[in-house]
Amino acid sequence: MPAVNAVEPTRSNQDFIDMERDIALLRRQVDEAKREASPARKGENEARKQIKDLKTKLANETRATNTYWSCLKRSRRDMG
What we know:
Blueprint: H1 11-36, H2 44-79
């Protein structure tokens, strides 16, 4: 018996899945950069800059995904 609330893959769903994948990748990169950054190593400022850049990218991707998701929900509500 098929699931009642199964969602068929569409282009908009795939875009959302891709955005979530990008966010997860950026989160992993931020975590890796934090682990690699050590005050005893040379290039401390570069490591901090890299972490800051990755956090900015993560925030931008999250904001874009949330905006996309709210538009998708609004259009589904308007259609049905």
